[in-house]
Design goal:
alpha/beta; Four Helix Bundle (Hemerythrin (Met), subunit A); Rossmann fold; seven-stranded mixed β-sheet; 11 helices; 14 strands; about 15% strand; globular; binds 5-S-methyl-1-O-phosphono-5-thio-D-ribulose
């Protein structure tokens, strides 16, 4: 597909020493890139959602390990491996729910382990080769994500018809990945083929990923997008304007229960009530067969300040009010019509269809 955007979400710097990210907390007002070299700044960028969205976090984590390992000075490969494991644990403590973070960190660590074993010699040359290997692996994760997004988009588009009204929640678009997104990928491909979708974007309280990010990127690409507040989804569905709901996911359990941005499960329950299909678009790296069901997924809890103050000039609630701010919720598998990955369309029962997909890799 032709180049759609004049921005990128995450990359390795041209001199290969740093992680470069688009600071998503500054959008939609400002397009600012951050060049990160220190582990604290990489951890903080993930923690504070400067880089966000499960696949983009995975790509950032891959480059994160890569740039931090390059800086580590040692002549012994076992020391470097120890350092890679330490960085994995440290970056893994930034956010708990998106499994892509751990998937990418583990993949990089396993690559380092494999290299240490494969290289018979020790010393500075062996260390240099391992660092080179890590760079290649991080680039591979990045490149694969682009291809994965397009494949997800192609498979999901087969479920959609021209002119459809489509509701999405949070941001599972280009900003959440290194490619054209997951949930938004079919919309971009459809746009290219003249499908004329009418997209409704939930604003997604409290961090407004729908308003600040989804509305921004769809609008930029010329897709017909209408922003609504979260509490309007029911009436928009009831009015017949929505014929499909498409969202991303942060972790999909073996039985198909899917964690995604807080509010998604409510949207799914409504969709079922109104007979609207609920599609989850996510890469296989989001499918976590080691997690049996949604109840086993750790849900990130974030500071109440995000509800009271975050994007406002002055507090919108008493500053000392009690708050509860879970960042994600779990949509039970019974509310999900299909899960679309780069391998195709998985239908219920998901325990079987997801396993088959993973095994066909
Ligand atoms: O807290 P965020 O903004 O990282 O949450 C993002 C989401 O919930 C996305 O829907 C999910 O990561 C899928 S992105 C392709």
């Amino acid at each position: 597909m032709k180049q759609l955007f004049d921005f990128f979400t995450v990359d390795l710097s041209p001199d290969e020493t740093s992680l470069v990210i688009l600071d998503q907390t500054r959008l939609p007002g400002e397009t600012v890139y951050l060049t990160l070299r220190e582990e604290e700044s990489i951890w903080d960028a993930i923690r504070t959602l400067k880089v966000r969205g499960a696949p983009a976090i995975g790509v950032a984590a891959g480059y994160g390990i890569c740039v931090l390992a390059q800086q580590y000075e040692t002549g012994r490969k076992e020391d470097l491996l120890k350092e890679v494991r330490r960085i994995r644990d440290y970056l893994g403590s930034s956010r708990p729910t998106a499994v892509n973070l751990f998937w990418a960190l583990d993949r990089m660590t396993e690559k380092a382990e494999e290299c240490v074993k494969a290289l018979p010699e020790d010393g500075p040359e062996a260390v240099r080769k391992i660092k080179e290997c890590l760079k290649e692996e991080a680039r591979k994760i990045h490149k694969e994500d682009r291809a994965t997004c397009e494949a997800i988009g192609r498979h999901c588009l087969t479920l959609l018809e021209p002119g459809m009204g489509i509701l999405t929640h949070c941001n599972a678009g280009a900003l959440a990945t290194a490619g054209i997104g997951t949930a938004l990928a079919p919309l971009y491909l459809g746009q290219e083929q003249g499908y004329g979708f009418k997209v409704y974007a939930d604003e997604t309280r409290p961090l407004l990923q729908g308003a600040r990010l989804t509305a921004w990127e769809l609008n930029k690409a010329g897709v017909d997008v209408t922003l609504i507040c979260d509490n309007m989804a029911c009436s928009v569905m009831k009015s017949g304007k929505i014929r499909a709901v498409i969202t991303g996911a942060d972790r999909i359990a073996a039985n198909g229960d899917s964690a995604n941005k807080i509010g998604t499960s409510g949207v799914a329950v409504l969709a079922k009530e109104f007979g609207i299909p609920m599609y989850i678009c996510a890469p296989l790296s989001t499918v976590d067969l080691n997690t049996p069901a949604g109840a086993d997924i750790q849900i990130e809890e974030r500071p109440g300040e995000e509800i009271i103050h975050k994007w406002y000039e002055r507090p919108m609630a008493p500053e000392d009010i009690k708050t509860y701010n879970p960042a994600f919720d779990v949509t039970d598998a019974e509310y999900i019509t299909a899960i679309i990955t780069e391998k195709g369309v998985a239908r219920p029962p998901f325990r079987e269809s997801l396993r088959e997909m993973q095994e066909s890799e």
